[in-house]
Amino acid sequence: MLDMLDPIEKRLNEAGLALPEPWTPRGNFVPLKMAGNLVFMSGQICEWNGEVVCRGPVGQGCTLDEARLAAQTCTLNLLYHLKNVCEGKLSRVSSIIRVGGFVNCLDDFKDSPAVINGASDLLFMLFGEAGRHARTAVGVRGLPGGAAVEVDMIAAVD
Question: What is the C-alpha to C-alpha distance for residues 28 and 17, in angstroms, rounded to an integer?
């Protein structure tokens, strides 16, 4: 059965990861907007099956390693929406253009880039060179639901 999967989802499965179950965003916004072949995705927090899996601030509410995994969870949520716009085939993604990462942290926290590496590393593992992207990683004083991390993304699709 793995042989019949899209190559990107096959890599996900081989890494022991999966996309989330269908869900609806909280709030009055859409999960993504298309402009030509670009997909602009709304920020996704580290929520899984309706529950925030890692609460901030990082360094107090959760560890750096837990926050890196939370950034990965955010990215899986983004990929869920991206898969839908790609008619079920993540291999239609030609490039991850940009990732924006927000880390719920205290004023003296200096490791926001290390947290957002959880998202960047996953994208590179799945998409190879097409997964390399421009990026921001900033610390903030709060995120929806008390989440430790939020990630947004822009991708190009064929």
Answer: 29
- % of the chain exceeding 90 in pLDDT: 89
Q: Which of 23, 40, 149, 120 is nearest to 85 (CA)?
A: 40
Cα–chain center distance at 7:
19
Contacts of 56 (CB under 8 A, 6+ apart): 62, 67, 103, 104, 105, 142, 143, 146, 147, 148, 149
Q: Note the pLDDT tens digit of each residue in 109-128.
A: 999 999 999 999 999 999 99
Distance CA 137, CA 118 (A): 11
**Model pTM score:** 0.95
Q: Are the C-beta atoms of 104 and 141 separated by less than 8 Å? A: yes
Domains annotated for the chain, with CATH where assigned, are 34-157 (3.30.1330.40)
Residues 100, 152: contact at Cβ < 8 Å?
yes
